[in-house]
Amino acid sequence: MNELLHKLGTISDVYPDFVIGVLVYVKKKKNRLDIMLDYLNSNDNLTSSDVLEFMLSQPDFREDNVGLKEAVTG
Length: 74
Fold this sequence. Notes:
With 74 residues, the chain is an all-alpha fold. The chain has helices spanning 2-9, 16-27, 30-42, 48-56, 68-73. Helix 1 runs parallel beside helix 3. It is globular, with a radius of gyration of 13 Å.
């Protein structure tokens, strides 16, 4: 996880909510961390938008998604 935090910190337009969002996503499954690190290590000059686009394109991204109605009503 430290490597991921370091890599995210080197992104030129990094911001706290972005980092939190990526961390929440990768903590759900071990292989997500590996996939994200591979992406970050294989690409230079990434922006937060690049990383978010990659994360959103993952087939399992919506597995953990709770609908707004469910989140509000509990």
